[in-house]
Design a protein that fits this description.
single chain, alpha+beta, four-stranded antiparallel sheet, 4 strands, 2 helices, 36% strand
Length: 129
């Protein structure tokens, strides 16, 4: 994971998710689409991941705890923003049942204003390969 900062701070439409994905994939920000600009950001993200042999598995959370353990991996976590009544995305390190802040793409950092509401994992479309 190589930290990338967001550059668009529009409440509810900025590019924190884009910066998180760029960070996890170690890509420049401009090489990663701002999926929130699409009418259906999840479909746009899945389409971008398909040629990479990956899919995005988005799991609802009841707090910062995963229902099943995972080996250490980076994921996107989203929850309340400390800067208003909208959501914010961060890069989290998932380990066991827990999520820990690994990178906040907001330049001043700080993470989420409360527990993550969902976590998104990049998983192989063909895990047997």
């Amino acid at each position: 994971m190589r930290p990338v900062e967001q550059t668009d701070f529009t409440p509810g439409g900025g590019n924190a998710l884009q910066a998180c994905i760029a960070s996890i994939f170690e890509l420049p920000l401009d090489a990663t689409p701002n999926f929130l600009k699409s009418p259906d950001y999840l479909s746009a993200l899945q389409e971008w991941l398909e040629p990479r042999g990956l899919t995005f598995l988005k799991l609802s959370l009841g707090g910062d705890r995963l229902e099943f353990p995972v080996q250490d991996c980076y994921c996107v976590a989203a929850g309340p923003s400390p800067r208003g009544a909208h959501r914010h995305a961060i890069v989290a390190l998932a380990a066991g049942h827990t999520l820990k802040l690994a990178h906040d793409p907001y330049p001043a950092g700080g993470g989420l204003a409360g527990p993550a509401e969902w976590a998104g994992f990049f998983v192989s479309r063909n895990p047997a390969q």
